[in-house]
C-alpha cells in the first residue's frame, strides 16, 4: 500500500507538470501569434525628393553661385535604403524648376532633372512650372513618363502618363498627380495644343482606376485647398487607403501640416516643406486590421552628409559658365572708368520688347534695374539685373489705344511708364498728336501691342482689357528678348543706358 501511495503521488506531480507545461506552451504560442500578426507586414518608407522651386543652385547678384543642401538628397536616400528590412519607394513630386529663377531658366530645368535622376525615382510627377521652363520642342520621351492625371488627350496618345500602378513587395500602390487648370493657362497653346486640362475630380471619374480594399494611393495636388478638398472627397468614396499631398504654390497658404498627417476616414492629408532644405519621408506600418500607423518626417538636409554633393554641384556649374558669361555687349570706356555703375534705360526695355514681339508698339511698367558691375554685359548679368516676365500681346483700335495710354499716364505719370513705337505729348492729362511709326494714329485702324504680365496685372490695364481678347501666350519672355536683341540688333549706348 505504501508503494501504491508513492506511485499515486508521483503520478499526480507528473500530471501537474504536464498541465503547467501545456499552459506555458499555449501562452507562448498565443504571444507568438499576436507578435506575428503585428509584424506580419514589412514597414514602408517613401521618400519625396523635389519641390526645389528653382533654388537647387542660385546665381546671386554678385555673380557668385549659391549651392543648396538639396544636392545631398541622392546620398541621403541611398543611406536609408540600405535598411533592407523596409520597403523603399521614391516618388519625385516635381515642381523643381522655375521660369523666373536665373539658373533654372538658363538650363531649362536640366540642373534639377539631373539631380532627380540620381535619386532613381520609382515614379515622377510634373508641375506647370516644370513644363513652362522647357521649350516645347524638348519635351522628350523620358519627360513624358511623368504623371499628369487631369490632362485629357481624348483619343490621342497622352502627352503624360495619367497615373501609375505598381506593386512593391506585394503591396498595390497607385500614384496620381493633379494640377489646377488655371496654373496651366499660359501653357495651353505653347505646349498642349488641343489637349485640355480637365477638372481633377472629373478626370478621376473618367479614368476610374481599379482601386481595391488593400490598395494604397499617393496623390500630389498642385492647386488651392478648395480643389484639394474636392479631390479628398472623391477618394473617400473609393476603396483603399489614400495619401494626398498639397504642394502649395508661391504665396499660397494651406491648413495642412508637414509633420502630422490629417485623417478624414480613409484619406490622409499633408503638405511638405521646401525641398531644397528638407527631404520629406513618410513611414507606413500596416496592421492586420484598421488604419496604418504613419510617421511623417522632414529630414533637415543641413544635418545630413554626402560624399558627392560638392563635386556634383561644382561640375554642373563649371559646365554652365561658358554660356552664362558669354559676352553680349562691350561698353566703350573712353568716357569713364570700366567699373563705373551703369543701368539699363527703362525706355530701352519697351523698345527691346517691341522688337522681339514684332508689334506696332510696346507699353510697359518697367522693372527696377540693378546696376551692372562693369562694361562687359554677359548673359549672367542680364539674368541678375532684371526680373524675368512673360511677354504678352493684344490688339486695339487707334481710338482704344489712345484712350488706354491716357488712362495709364493719368494714373502713373509718364516717368513710371515706358513706350516704344509711338510718340505723343501730354497736355492737361490728354495725349496730343499721337504718332505710330511716325504716322498719325488712325482711330479705326487695328494696332498690335506688346506688354508684360506685370503690366497686364496693373489695375488700369486689367480693367481696360477686361472682355477683350488677348493673344495666346507663345513662350516669349523678357530675358529672351534682351539676350536676342542685344546679340542681333545694334542699339546705341545712349539709348540703351541711363
Q: How are the SSEs placed, and which strands pair?
A:
Elements: H1 2-38, E1 44-47, E2 57-59, E3 65-67, H2 73-81, E4 87-92, H3 102-106, H4 110-118, E5 123-124, H5 128-132, E6 151-152, E7 163-168, E8 171-179, H6 188-192, E9 196-197, H7 200-207, E10 216-222, H8 225-236, E11 241-246, E12 262-264, E13 267-271, E14 278-285, E15 293-300, H9 309-324, E16 327-330, H10 346-357, E17 361-364, E18 376-378, H11 379-385, E19 391-397, H12 398-412, E20 418-420, E21 422-427, E22 430-436, E23 439-440, E24 446-452, H13 453-456, H14 459-465, H15 478-488, H16 493-496
Parallel strand pairs: 1-4, 4-5, 8-10, 10-11, 11-13, 17-24
Antiparallel strand pairs: 1-14, 2-3, 6-9, 7-8, 12-13, 14-15, 16-18, 17-20, 19-24, 21-22, 22-23
Helix pairs in contact: 10-15
Amino acid at each position: 500500500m505504501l508503494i501504491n501511495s508513492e506511485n499515486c503521488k508521483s503520478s499526480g506531480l507528473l500530471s501537474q507538470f504536464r498541465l503547467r507545461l501545456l499552459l506555458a506552451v499555449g501562452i507562448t504560442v498565443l504571444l507568438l501569434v499576436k507578435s506575428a500578426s503585428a509584424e506580419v507586414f514589412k514597414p514602408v518608407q517613401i521618400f519625396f525628393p523635389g519641390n526645389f522651386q528653382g533654388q537647387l543652385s542660385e546665381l546671386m547678384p554678385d555673380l557668385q553661385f549659391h549651392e543648396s543642401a538639396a544636392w545631398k538628397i541622392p546620398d541621403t536616400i541611398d543611406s536609408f535604403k540600405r535598411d533592407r528590412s523596409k520597403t523603399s519607394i521614391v516618388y519625385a513630386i516635381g515642381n523643381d524648376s522655375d521660369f523666373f529663377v536665373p539658373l533654372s531658366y538658363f538650363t531649362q530645368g536640366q540642373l534639377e532633372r539631373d539631380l532627380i535622376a540620381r535619386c532613381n525615382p520609382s515614379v515622377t510627377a510634373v508641375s506647370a512650372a516644370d513644363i513652362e521652363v522647357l521649350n516645347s520642342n524638348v519635351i522628350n520621351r523620358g519627360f513624358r513618363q511623368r504623371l499628369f492625371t487631369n490632362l485629357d488627350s481624348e483619343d490621342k496618345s497622352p502627352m503624360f502618363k495619367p497615373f501609375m500602378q505598381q506593386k512593391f513587395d506585394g503591396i498595390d500602390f497607385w500614384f496620381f498627380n493633379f494640377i489646377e487648370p488655371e496654373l496651366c493657362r499660359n501653357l495651353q497653346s505653347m505646349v498642349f495644343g488641343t489637349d485640355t486640362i480637365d477638372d481633377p475630380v472629373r478626370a478621376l471619374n473618367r479614368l476610374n482606376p481599379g482601386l481595391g480594399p488593400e490598395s494604397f494611393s499617393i496623390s500630389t495636388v498642385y492647386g488651392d485647398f478648395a480643389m484639394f478638398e474636392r479631390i479628398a472627397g472623391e477618394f473617400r468614396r473609393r476603396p483603399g487607403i489614400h495619401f494626398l499631398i498639397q504642394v502649395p504654390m508661391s504665396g499660397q497658404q494651406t491648413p495642412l501640416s508637414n509633420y502630422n498627417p490629417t485623417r478624414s476616414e480613409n484619406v490622409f492629408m499633408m503638405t511638405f516643406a521646401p525641398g531644397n532644405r528638407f527631404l520629406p519621408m513618410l513611414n507606413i506600418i500596416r496592421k492586420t486590421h484598421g488604419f496604418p500607423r504613419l510617421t511623417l518626417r522632414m529630414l533637415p538636409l543641413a544635418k545630413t552628409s554626402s560624399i558627392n554633393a560638392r563635386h556634383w554641384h561644382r561640375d554642373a556649374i563649371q559646365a554652365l559658365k561658358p554660356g552664362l558669361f558669354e559676352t553680349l555687349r562691350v561698353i566703350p570706356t573712353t568716357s569713364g572708368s570700366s567699373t563705373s555703375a551703369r543701368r539699363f534705360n527703362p525706355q530701352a526695355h519697351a523698345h527691346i520688347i517691341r522688337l522681339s514681339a514684332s508689334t506696332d508698339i510696346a507699353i510697359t511698367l518697367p522693372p527696377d534695374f540693378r546696376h551692372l558691375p562693369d562694361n562687359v554685359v554677359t548673359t549672367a548679368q542680364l539674368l541678375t539685373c532684371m526680373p524675368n516676365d512673360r511677354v504678352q500681346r493684344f490688339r486695339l483700335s487707334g481710338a482704344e489705344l489712345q484712350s488706354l495710354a491716357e488712362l495709364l499716364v493719368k494714373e502713373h505719370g509718364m516717368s513710371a511708364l515706358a513706350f516704344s513705337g509711338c510718340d505723343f505729348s501730354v497736355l492737361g492729362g490728354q495725349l496730343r498728336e499721337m504718332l505710330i511709326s511716325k504716322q498719325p494714329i488712325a482711330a479705326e485702324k487695328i494696332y498690335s501691342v506688346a506688354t508684360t504680365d506685370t503690366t497686364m496685372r496693373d489695375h488700369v490695364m486689367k480693367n481696360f482689357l477686361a472682355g477683350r481678347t488677348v493673344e495666346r501666350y507663345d513662350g516669349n519672355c523678357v530675358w529672351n528678348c534682351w539676350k536676342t536683341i542685344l546679340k542681333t540688333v545694334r542699339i546705341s549706348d545712349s539709348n540703351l543706358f541711363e
